[in-house]
Design a protein that fits this description.
single chain, alpha+beta, Arc Repressor Mutant, subunit A, Helix-turn-helix domain-containing protein, 7 helices
Length: about 110
Amino acid sequence: MEKTSEQTAENNPFEYTLSLIGGKWKMRIIYRLSRQQTQRYGELKQHITGITHKMLTSQLKELECSGIVHRKSFNEVPPRVEYTLTEKGKTLMPVLDLMCNWGVEHQN
């Protein structure tokens, strides 16, 4: 019997972490939120070059379900939604900072 990706992620910390932050966009979103503590949807869309509306929406929902991003909706007209990193999300920053440092050292 072949293991599903969920079973693999449950038993392997690397796979679990990758399931939460892997892909083209999630680390960019997390990094952006770490630099600008609170961001509105439009600000994220503007600063993450190349991401589509549909992809940004789905990635934010996944990050919210994972407990990495907090979404705060305001009962205003026009509607306003803000995104911030949760405490769990902030614990990823040392890892992303190390990745940035590695890129500075090895770029070119």
